[in-house]
Structures are given as structure tokens and as C-alpha cells.
Amino acid sequence: MTMRAKIDVNIHDTTIGIWQDNARDETFLSDVFAPLVRGMRDRGWHVGADPRMKDHFRALNSTHRLASQGNMRASVEINGRAIEIKFWAETWPMDNQHGRRYDFRKLARMEYLDRLRFHLEARRIVAWLETIAPVTVKQDEPAGITAMERIERRYAESWHTDKKLGRPVSEYAYNHTSRDGQTIEHGATVWFVGYDKRIGRGTAYYNINSMWWVVADKYTLLNLACHEIFCSAPADLRVKRNERKRRERLERELAAATRRMDFKRAELLRRIIFGAETVYLIWARDKDAYYRPQYCGYTTDTISAGRYTRAEAEAEVRRVPHELMAVTPDGKRINAADFDLVAA
Predict the structure, then answer these.
(1) Could you tell me the pTM of the whole model?
(2) Would you state the pLDDT for residue 1?
(3) In which domain, by residue range, is 162 found?
(4) Computed from CA positions of residues 107, 108, 110, 116, in that sequence, does the dihedral angle turn out positive or negative?
């Protein structure tokens, strides 16, 4: 293979972007994308088709791949002269209802060994690219810099920065209104729910749109939406904020009790979770399946399906009315418009 023109590599969090300005789309696919996938396979990755693309977007099937190796997962996609590889792990608590693939701050969520595996794979990819073209690598920031130094670097690079103040400015209330309804001030002490689901404290610095940098300690920097931030200390600071995990665990126990026909325990668990409220299932037409608990995944098994209060089911069905229906305890399926006709 002849040496190609310069390739730019941008590494942000766990995403590796590969770009060549003057490449032709078809040669970039055959000379870079295909060998990249083969190289990952040679290093022990299982690389195959992306089921979503294969089932719904067949024209894109050849340009999208999913890879797995132990706890690690990766998506490999090519769009014209750009390749994007995103890595994540199947080990951290899932925040995004669509899967860990769509969680933010993936590198910080990874276990120590998985972070090392990502950095090793990134180095291997860059080393291979250097054998076919001159490579320029741009990474988030050097290792070892403090959280404040990272913020200063971002301010210096951002075109949103106000030149007089040396930082971006939040102009709209919806970008600086906290979870407890107060105004977030630049440089103020704030509170947040950390990865361990406990309340943490830090200092807020405006980033962009509704996002704020929060310096938790000298080296720990979080990028949080304003609705994730408290301006006043929440009550019971020592209490773990794990309501979602608690409910998910209780629903699993409810399904297990129902499956083994321990109906006395199942009824007790149902009262603990929902009290006297009527519970609904949520049916997704496009998946031909029910929602699992806590909006995470799908199942055709009614026992394993998630249970939702009327308010939860109605809000979700109204959010995507053309795809979702609620299922009442007697098995009746109702659309968003039918909720007003159903007794509470």
C-alpha cells in the first residue's frame, strides 16, 4: 500500500476520531476502515455487524460494526472520510435508558484495568496508522494536569468565551437554573449526586449551554447539566441516592417471586414498591415487546416486564405516542389519547 496523505486523529474521552481531508470515500473505506477492523480482530476483538443497522438501515450495514472483548465494547463507524471508534464497558451502573453506549464520561466510569485496555488499544490504532500515513494526534489534555488547568485550556480553545471575562457566560435562565430551582453562580459552591450515588460537593464554573464544570477536588472535574446541580445542600447528605437501583432490584425480586408462584411475597413486594397505585406495562410497537424495569431494554415476557405507575406510563407514552402504548392490569392497551378515558 502506498503512503497516504496526513491523517488527523482526535481522542476525546473514549472516542477516537480518524480523519483525512483529501481522501476519496471509497479508498478510505478499503484502505483504512477495513484494515482497522481486521487489526482489531487480530488483537482478540470479536467484530460483527451492528444489529440495529442490519435490521433497520441495511444501506449502512457495511459501514457500521460492533466489537466486544471481555467487559469492553466498541462501535466502529465510517462516514465518508471520517472514522469514529467509541469504547465503553459493561461494568458501570447504567444511567442512560438506551444503554451504556450512550452514557457520558465513559472513561471516568471505567474500572482501572478497562481504562488501561482503552489506552492500549488507542496506542495500537495510532501506531498502525503511522505505518500508512503521517499522523497528527490531538488528545483532550495531557495527563496529570489539575481540574482548574483543564478548565482554563477549554476556555482558551472555546469560541464561546467572552474575551473580556475570559470565560463563557450563561445568558438564559434555563442554562443556569439548578435542580433545586436556584441560580447557579460562576465560582459558587454546589452539590451533586456522584457516580457512587452519594452527594458530593464542588465548585461550579460555566461551560456551555446548560452544562457546568464542577471541580470536585484538585484533579477531579465533572461536566454536569444544570438540572444535576444543587445550589443548596440537600437534606440527609449521608443518604445514598440510589432510588433507581433500589426499585430495579425490588422489581427483579417481584418477578422472581411471581415466576415461582410465591404470590404472598409478590404482593408484599408490590405494596412496598407501588403502595395502592395501579401499575401498568409499556408496550413498544417498533420492538414488539414490553419495556423492562426502569426504561432499560425490552422483553416479550410479561413477568420480566417493568411495572410503572399511571403517571410514569402516561408520561412515557405521551413522549413517543406513535410507538408506545400502556397496558392496563386487565391487559387492555391504551394510546396516549385514551388516558383521559381511563379511571385513575
Answers:
(1) 0.50
(2) 47
(3) 147-230
(4) positive
